[in-house]
Known about the structure:
Elements: H1 3-20, E1 60-61, E2 64-65, E3 72-76, H2 78-86, H3 91-99, E4 103-108, H4 109-118, H5 123-129, E5 135-137, H6 146-156, E6 160-163, H7 167-174, E7 181-185, E8 188-192
Parallel strand pairs: 3-4, 3-6, 4-5, 6-7
Antiparallel strand pairs: 1-2, 7-8
Family: Belongs to the UTP23/FCF1 family. FCF1 subfamily.
GO cellular component, one term: small-subunit processome
Domain PIN: 72-171
Amino acid sequence: MGKQRKTRKIVEKRFAQMKKIISLSDNRIKATERAEPKKKKKVDPHEVKVREVPQASSALFFQYNTQLGPPYHILIDTNFINFSIKNKLDIIQNMMDCLYAKCIPYVTDCVLGELEKLGRKYRVALRIIKDPRFERLACLHKGTYADDCIVQRVTQHKCYIVATNDKDLKRRIRKIPGVPIMYVAQHKYTIERMPDAYGAPKGAI
């Protein structure tokens, strides 16, 4: 017997077994054990449809974030640190050169955990973020996946700028109104979606 015919017979046999199963609403089942027939809900054409829209932060006014301002609070992602090392950029100094103001870099526990998991190859990155000028943010969630943690933080608190070179994370942050993104491009830091009032570099938005 050919392989195709054999598999077809097995599939047909299984299908026949599945067909034997009686549905819970069948008349042959006792009235006490029988499932109640589903009632079709009548749709009223004149009924007002209610759409739930996520509430925008009170810090936003026409997409302009009033919680942003010097000193800037910058949430750093794992690959942003690695890109800075590859391009031989001093993180704090270049942040200040980009924004023309004092910057406070923030590192979450999950970012630290990600770097520790990467091993000895990334010991330079670990040494950099353990600098006392870098503020630590405690994480209460399980695991070390930093992207979800960063997205959740910037959704709740609009005072952060996200520093990342991760395309997927950038895409997710762009969906959140009023959150600027800092990234490494052409051996320097660039920022996008920064309000004009704060002197964002031209061509970065």
